[in-house]
Design brief:
27 helices; 567 residues; mainly alpha
């Protein structure tokens, strides 16, 4: 047994043969007929039936020889090799006590490539049940402990027999293709689940095997029926806690089928979107938070996000998963520098493909999920900035409170510190090596400036004043020349002024209070140059600043001490 188990674990190519060897040696291991308790001279021929006959003849000869020795030597005669062999009721090596034996059976039953492996694994499991029924009457042989995957209790023999009968019935029925054959049998899966106050008769691994086979059936109609039936029979989250990760992901993959989820969403009672959200949340919460750093919840969450991004989940399924993340009772630090990019890709590439009526709900669910999943010490500022910019302004405004809460969670002053650093480096971020800038370079500068200034709305007024002073100081003294760095400074200034024009008067005045614009807009500000770039940049600055000031009270203008000299 140890040799077979070692070969099974190490060499993939041997697995089909090992199932055959186990099927052939099962009688020997379990002491069923003693046919395989052979002497050293007995060898197995290619023809199995011929070999069994030879073994029977050899057994008769050994038995006759043993009887002759007993008559000759009396009671003290030494037992022969045959009489020393195990009895027909005592196993030589009880395979039922080997956890790896049932792991092999589970793997064999789930094999989708070799039907012979499935057949042999099913044979071994059925023989195991038969042996348990036979040995339960032997008071001399009752195991004191059982492996996790299998146990047998003579007092519960009727219940266990019924459960295993249902298991075999569903398992063999799922080999059929037509739905009219599967449909009457599938509800028997309820026998494998725990009932009110009654534990499940079989280990959850056997039920999960059945579910995976149903969810991955070759017939799409059967898959659709299995998931809808399962969600209607087991809507309570307590049932989902018994699923393993592989079964749960198979459940999610099947739910990603648009036909399955759209039909389910039409049900009048509790919609599967809500049921599914409850399922996901309950399943993740039920996973243990390991203390060694290998948190199972983190792996599952990242697997779900990767599937959502690669398989392009529909809006209903995407929202239900994100809502499930947001409804987690505890914080799960699943998103770091590497995995946060998956969420950004979903927001930038997947969600825009949905119908516009789903955008607001899904975008809102994304940011609420981030509140529960972010590892704030491991997500860099650049990714946060790009992510926020990837969400349309209207939806950012609708979820501004959640964005504010999320950014505040990074720590006090975190956003202001990063924005100041980006303002300092903004003029140097030149993509072109040319000394002159074209229209594409100007567009890129405005886009980068907009991404930077858009984040100003999430800082407090005191920080906004600091950032405004920083941008103004960057442009002091103001110089309109067609030099790349200087143009980027002007672009940043004009973008800031447009931002101040868009916010409330109180906020804009607070940001500009005590700042003298003389240091920025000096009397040397002129438009004598005929270069289009100079003129355009100067016009933008003057128009933005004059518009911002014209919206403020007259006394505020005198406080700002701003003088515009227009040519």
């Amino acid at each position: 047994w140890e040799t077979l188990a070692a070969l099974y674990r190490r060499i993939e190519a041997y697995k089909p043969d090992i199932y055959g060897i186990l099927a052939a040696l099962y009688d020997y291991f379990m002491g069923e007929r003693g046919l395989y308790v052979a002497t050293a001279s007995a060898k197995k021929d290619d023809d199995d039936e011929e070999w069994v006959v030879k073994q029977q003849q050899l057994d008769k000869k050994n038995k006759a020889k043993a009887q002759a020795q007993q008559k000759k030597g009396g009671k003290d005669a030494a037992p022969s090799a045959s009489s020393a062999a195990p009895s027909a009721t005592t196993p030589v090596h009880d395979l039922r006590l080997e956890q790896s034996f049932f792991e092999m059976i589970l793997a064999g039953l789930a094999d989708n490539e070799d039907p012979l492996v499935r057949k042999r694994a099913l044979y071994l499991l059925k023989r195991c049940i038969e042996s348990s029924k036979r040995l339960q009457t032997d008071s001399k042989y009752q195991p004191q402990s059982w492996p996790d995957l299998f146990s047998w209790d003579a007092k519960k023999a009727t219940q266990l027999s019924r459960a295993w009968h249902s298991f075999f019935l569903i398992l063999e029925t799922l080999q059929e293709y037509d739905i009219h054959i599967v449909k009457p049998v599938w509800p028997h899966v309820k026998v494998l689940h725990a009932d009110q106050g009654t534990p499940a008769p079989l280990h959850d691994a056997w039920k999960n095997l059945i579910l995976r086979l149903g969810f991955s059936h070759k017939n799409s109609l059967v898959k659709k029926y299995c998931i809808l039936s399962y969600m209607s029979l087991f809507a309570a989250p307590m049932y989902l806690k018994t699923l393993d990760k592989d079964t749960f992901l198979a459940f999610v993959d099947l739910a990603a089928d648009p036909a399955v989820f759209s039909v389910a969403a039409g049900q009048r009672e509790q919609t599967p979107k809500k049921i599914f959200s409850s399922y996901v949340s309950s399943f993740i919460s039920a996973l243990p938070a390991a203390t060694d750093g290998s948190d199972q919840r983190v792996g599952l969450i990242n697997d779900l996000l990767a599937r959502a991004q690669k398989q392009s989940f529909g809006p209903a399924l995407m929202e239900s998963i994100l809502v499930a993340f947001a409804s987690l009772e505890q914080q799960v630090k699943a998103l770091n520098e590497t995995t946060f990019s998956t969420v950004a890709a979903i927001a930038q590439s997947n969600i825009p493909l949905f119908h516009f009526r789903h955008h607001r709900a899904v975008y809102s669910s994304v940011i609420q999920a981030l509140l529960k999943l972010s590892d704030y010490s491991a997500i860099p500022y650049d990714q946060v900035r790009r992510f926020i910019r990837s969400i349309p302004a209207a939806h950012r405004k609708a979820s501004q409170s959640h964005f504010q809460q999320w950014l505040d969670s990074f720590g006090a002053g975190w956003l202001e510190k990063n924005l100041i650093a980006e303002i300092d480096s903004f003029p140097e971020q030149i993509s072109s090596v040319s000394t002159t800038l074209g229209a594409a370079d100007i567009d890129e500068a405005y886009s980068a400036a907009a991404q930077l200034v858009d984040l100003f709305v999430y800082v407090p007024v005191a920080s906004l004043k600091t950032l405004t002073a920083k941008v103004l100081a960057l442009n002091s003294p103001l110089s309109i020349v067609a030099e790349p760095k200087q143009v980027r400074k002007i672009v940043l200034l004009s973008t800031l002024l447009r931002f101040l024009r868009s916010v409330s008067s109180d906020v804009a005045l607070a940001a500009l209070s005590g700042i003298s614009a003389k240091a920025v807009l000096t009397e040397s500000f002129s438009f004598r140059s005929k270069m289009a770039l100079q003129t355009a940049a100067a016009d933008v600055v003057c128009e933005s600043l004059s518009s911002a000031i014209s919206l403020k009270p007259r006394d505020a203008c005198s406080q700002l001490d701003v003088r515009l000299h227009l040519n």
